Structures are given as structure tokens and as C-alpha cells.
Amino acid sequence: MDRVSALIRDVAETEILPYFRDLANAGIREKTGPADLVTLADEAAERALTPRLMDLLPGSTVVGEEAVSADKSLLDRLHGDAPVWIIDPIDGTINFANGRPLFAVIVALARAGETLAGWIYDPCDGRLATAVKGQGAFLNGKRVQVAPAVPLPEMVGALSTRFCEESLGRQLDERGRALGPRACLSSAAQEYLRLLEGRAHYSLYHRLMPWDHAAGVLLHAEAGGYSALFDGAPYRPTVLGGGVMMAPDRDSWQALHRHLFG
């Protein structure tokens, strides 16, 4: 854990922060559209992390967001027997590109479709969340627990309808008004950190890219939270369709699911 944490910190310091708020040199460009950006920092960080993570665990391989953007067949590695490092070099690239300090590095370690460990690091304020399956979740070395359950009208969280079909989006938006304040941070990593700090009760996502959620779902579970796919099945990094929702516990998850989807 410590060696991976040190590596992530080092790469963030050398490959990410020098580009932050230096738009002239960040090389910002679109991948699939205006809401899907990549920068030189994303690419440099992933290039730096990939060989060094593999060196830490001989026989392992890597699935990185930017590499998959060029070769989607790399996702097949998630189904193999070899350990797989899953990398999101900058989660929240839109925030990064616009000079907002709401982004983070996400790394997960998985094998045979199961997440074994996860890291989320915020280079701007130094927050580091870590978890090993079965060993609890930690934020800056201190064990953390998710916020306790509260009634639906008091539940604070992130409810984005960006990647869902229009009719479902309208339904979720309307029913979400009965909940507490909603704030989408345009970074799943930052929203997972908010859950770990007990500042939010739930998050809901419609796009299941493994680099966005493998580490976060594990961290949330190890902090005592409950999550499941929209159909009630457990999340796995090999699942690429549908959506996932986090809540303080199983009862809260079921109540929230009935309210939003029932």
C-alpha cells in the first residue's frame, strides 16, 4: 500500500501539477466531444504510472483510461487471471482543464473481476484514501466510516443524469427534488472522497467505466457503506453497462432505489 501511495504522490507532483492552471502548455483537446477532454497531464501521468505499477507487482498488467481510449481491447484484461492495475490518471479532467481544484488520481488493483485494493489521491490538498479488501478504509491514515443513515429528505449526495436516457433523467430529476441538497462535482473521485468524509450520503452513476468506480466502490464498502447496481447485483469492475448507487446501508439503498426508480 505505502509504495503505491508514494508512487501516486510522486507522479502527481511531477506529471500533473506542473500543468495545472497552465492552459497554454496543458495541451487540452477533445476525445469524443466537449465534455470528454484529455490533456498532456492525463497522458503523462498514465505513462509514468503504468510501468512503475507493473514493476511493483511482477506479472501484473494495466488498464488505463487513456490507453483504452486508443485500444478498447485492453478491457479484456479485466477478465483474465493476471492482477490488473486500473488507472484514471486525472478523474475530473474538465475541472482540471478549467483550473478548478476538483480532480484526483484513481488507482485500483483487481483480479478475476474482483477489486482487491484502491487509492484516490487529491494532489491539490493531499487527501489520500486507501483500502485493501477486508481491511477497512483510511483517509490520510485514519480509519473512516460513511455517514450514518438519515431519512430520505435529509439525504445529501450526487445525482447526475448526464449519461442516462432522457425519460429516466426527467424522472430522477423530479424525484430527486424530494431529497436533500444535491451537488455533482464533475469528478467521481471527489464524490467518493465526500462520501468517505461523511459529507454526503449517496452517489448515483450511469456510466460504469472501471477506472471511475473500481477503487471508489471498494473504499465506500470498506468504510461501511452499501452499494449495488441498479438491478441489485453487486458491482464488479468488469460490468460496463447500467448504473451503480451508493448509500449508507442496505436499508437506505433500498429506500432510495424505491423512491427514485419505483
TrEMBL record:
The keyword Metal-binding applies. Pfam families: Inositol_P. Keywords: Hydrolase, Magnesium, Metal-binding. Gene3D superfamilies: 3.40.190.80, Fructose-1,6-Bisphosphatase, subunit A, domain 1. The keyword Cell membrane does not apply. InterPro entries: Inositol_monoP_metal-BS, Inositol_monophosphatase-like. Belongs to the inositol monophosphatase superfamily. This is Fructose-1,6-bisphosphatase/inositol monophosphatase family enzyme.
